[in-house]
Specification:
The protein is of the alpha+beta class. It has one domain: 2,3-Dihydroxybiphenyl 1,2-Dioxygenase, domain 1 (Roll). The chain contains three helices and eight strands, in the order E-H-E-E-E-H-E-H-E-E-E. It has an eight-stranded mixed beta sheet. It is globular. Bound molecules: zinc ion (ZN). The site of zinc ion has 6 residues, from strand 1 and strand 5.
Length: 133
């Protein structure tokens, strides 16, 4: 079951500039920053009520975030939904015809289990499912 929006992911060219911008927009400061080596990115999180903003900066030119920035420029990259059982939600979405970007969920930011669905199958929005560990 999808429970709520966990976070919105926003691609930035430069994390220092992104943090400065979102500190001003949100009148807040990030509570967490981590490098996700497997995805070649750095993620910085703000907590807003019971949801979050995730800023994403690529650490390599072959990162998916680099490709996104080249094609679309900085801005909203994905919407993440919190689920209670990522395996059953992946199965449900696959059975609806949505294409997962990985066969199995993997460990993403904040230690959550995550998986993504291809925007070509979801009307243009990259969708992330995530489950607390
Ligand atoms: Zn995310």
């Amino acid at each position: 079951m999808i429970k709520q929006i966990d976070h919105i992911g926003i691609a930035v060219n430069n994390m220092g500039e992104g943090v400065q911008l979102f500190n001003a927009i949100l009148d807040s400061i990030p509570f967490h920053k981590e490098e996700i080596v497997s995805q070649k990115l750095i993620a910085t999180f703000y907590e807003i009520g019971n949801t979050k903003i995730e800023l994403l900066e690529p650490t390599s030119t072959d990162s998916a975030i680099s490709k996104f920035l080249l094609n679309k420029g900085p801005g909203i990259h994905h919407v993440a939904f919190l689920v209670d059982n990522i395996h059953s939600e992946m199965q449900r979405m696959k059975s609806e015809g949505f294409k997962a970007l990985s066969e199995e969920p993997y460990i993403g930011a904040l230690g959550k289990l995550v998986c993504f669905f291809h925007p070509k199958t979801t009307g243009g929005s990259l969708i992330e499912l995530c489950q607390k560990k």
